């Protein structure tokens, strides 16, 4: 009997299936908690991963339970090979397999239910609306920034133009001032030239007079001539002063 029990494939399959069902149940509880939360499931990458793993679990367990059913049918077909498996044990195996299958079916039904589909569809639509609004806001912000940058550039160009205009006006005024200075310098040079010419003429006339006086007085000493002239002028001044008295 011990040998028959050891060769019974049900025990190995049962342990593997039970472990997989326990893992699926833990994931399903997490899936239900996310469904009950107010979070947007379409935005949650962890929810997508969880749902994908649950689909893989149900698919794998469905295949494993078919193998379990096959092992139960093998015992039913050849009871002489498994004398340890009493009718009560066989009924327990069928009941266990039915419970496992029901748990898998419950998970599959919950994931494919209309409520779950509507919830995910609604969340996806909401996410699309939010992303669309965000894209629109980003586009408006980019447009505003571009407009602001354009205004700043235009203001910079305008300021530069005004500065160039101011520089041109200053340059023009400096040119006019330089031209006026040149005219003034030319006039002063002309006046200095005329003054030099007048001085030269007066000097020539003085030399001519002094020469005449020198010949008249028969002397070439200019100091003596100047003394004579000064005394002569003093004499005239005294005569005029006496006449006024």
Question: Could you please describe the fold and organization of this structure?
Answer:
This protein is mostly helical and 245 residues long. It has a domain at 9-112: Methane Monooxygenase Hydroxylase, Chain G, domain 1 (Up-down Bundle). Helix content is 89%, strand content 0%. The chain is rod-shaped. The N and C termini lie far apart (183 Å). Residues 154-216 form the T-SNARE coiled-coil homology domain. Keywords: Golgi apparatus, Membrane, Protein transport, Transmembrane, Transmembrane helix, Transport.
CATH architecture of the domain at 9-112: Up-down Bundle
Helix content: over 70%
As for the CATH topology of the domain at 9-112, it is: Methane Monooxygenase Hydroxylase, Chain G, domain 1
User: How big is the Rg?
Assistant: 63 Å
Strand tally is 0
Number of helices: 6
Helix/strand-derived class? Answer: mainly alpha
Unreliable segments of 5+ consecutive residues: none
Indicate the mean pLDDT.
Answer: 82
What letter string, H or E per element, gives the SSE order?
Answer: HHHHHH
What's the CATH C level of the domain at 9-112? Answer: Mainly Alpha
Task: Report how far apart the termini are.
Answer: 183 Å
- Please tell me what the overall shape is: rod-shaped
SS strand fraction: under 5%
What composes the largest sheet? none
Subcellular location: Golgi apparatus, trans-Golgi network membrane
Protein name: t-SNARE coiled-coil homology domain-containing protein
Pfam family, one: STX6_10_61_N
Domain T-SNARE coiled-coil homology: 154-216
């Amino acid at each position: 009997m011990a040998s028959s029990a050891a060769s019974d494939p049900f025990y190995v399959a049962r342990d593997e299936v039970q472990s997989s069902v326990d893992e699926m149940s833990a994931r399903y509880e997490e899936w239900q908690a996310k469904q009950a939360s107010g979070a947007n499931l379409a935005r949650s990458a962890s929810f997508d991963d969880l749902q994908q793993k649950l689909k893989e679990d149900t698919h794998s367990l469905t295949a494993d339970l078919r193998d379990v059913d096959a092992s139960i049918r093998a015992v039913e077909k050849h009871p002489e090979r498994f004398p340890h498996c009493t009718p009560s044990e066989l009924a327990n195996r069928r009941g266990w397999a039915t419970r496992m299958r029901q748990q898998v079916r419950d998970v599959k039904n919950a994931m494919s239910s209309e409520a779950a589909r509507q919830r995910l569809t609604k969340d996806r639509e909401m996410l699309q609306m939010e992303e669309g609004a965000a894209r629109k806001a980003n586009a408006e912000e980019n447009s505003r920034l571009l407009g602001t940058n354009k205004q700043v550039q235009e203001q910079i160009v305008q300021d530069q133009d005004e500065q160039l205009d101011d520089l041109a006006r200053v340059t023009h005024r400096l040119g006019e001032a330089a031209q006026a200075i040149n005219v003034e310098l030319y006039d002063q040079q002309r006046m200095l030239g005329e003054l030099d010419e007048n001085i030269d003429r007066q000097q020539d006339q003085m030399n001519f007079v002094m020469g005449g006086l020198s010949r008249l007085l028969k002397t070439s000493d200019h100091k003596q001539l100047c003394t004579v002239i000064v005394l002569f002028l003093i004499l005239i001044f005294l005569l005029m002063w006496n006449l006024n008295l």
